[in-house]
Design goal:
It is a multi-pass membrane protein. This is Amino acid permease. The protein is mostly helical and about 180 residues long. The chain has 2 domains: about 1-55, no CATH class; about 55-155. About 75% of the residues lie in helices and about 0% in strands. The protein is built from 6 helices and no strands. Helix 3 (about 60-90) crosses helix 5 (about 130-150). The protein is globular, with a radius of gyration of 19 Å. The two termini are about 35 Å apart. The relative contact order is 0.07.
Length: about 180
């Protein structure tokens, strides 16, 4: 459920910026939730294992395969956050040496499962999963590049949204300290 929720919110966000069809950015009229993106992600998350199981694969194998590919996504995101955090703190003039140390240690710890997933080379089909993940990343990068060429303001619009969220976060933090 957590993966579906995160995936739906990412799909919702990229729909808002028209990186994918904007209909996935529609919200439920009453609940104001990203209902369309939740439905699309739920359908995808249901169909993939159903298709794999329909080809006579064991449920436990399908679970392991999909979980492994998803784990590469989590690890990739954690690495990006580990790199981005000191950069963000530097821009906010709040970077401390301990933040750099924590980021470096965290990066090192993240290398353990990353390297362990590719060396020694795992048996089939697990040896293919890093390439499948990298393929999805490449497809996403190409798609984003194409969308960016169609909309030269795309990055500026995303940055504006991120800045707005950042300002809201700062206001929420300040208001919680007042109480």
């Amino acid at each position: 459920m957590a993966c579906a929720n995160a995936g739906a919110r990412v799909l919702f966000s990229i729909g808002r910026h028209r990186i994918v069809n904007s209909s996935v950015a529609n919200v439920h009229h009453g609940n104001k939730t990203p209902a369309v993106s939740i439905s699309v992600i739920s359908l995808i998350f249901s169909l993939i294992p159903i298709i794999l199981i329909a080809f006579n694969n064991k449920i436990s194998d399908v679970y392991g395969w999909l979980g492994t590919v998803a784990t590469f996504g989590f690890l990739f995101n954690y690495v990006l956050v580990t790199i981005a955090t000191p950069i963000y703190l530097h821009k906010e003039k709040q970077l401390k040496i301990k933040d750099i140390i924590v980021s470096l240690v965290t990066f090192g710890i993240l290398l353990i499962p990353i390297i362990g997933s590719i060396y020694p080379v795992p048996s089939y089909p697990y040896n293919l999963f890093p390439f499948i993940f990298l393929g999805w990343l490449a497809i996403g990068a190409i798609w984003f590049t194409v969308q960016k060429s169609k909309n030269p303001n795309l990055i500026a619009n995303i940055q504006s949204d991120v800045n707005g969220i950042n300002e809201q976060f700062k206001m929420d933090i300040k208001s919680s300290k007042v109480v």
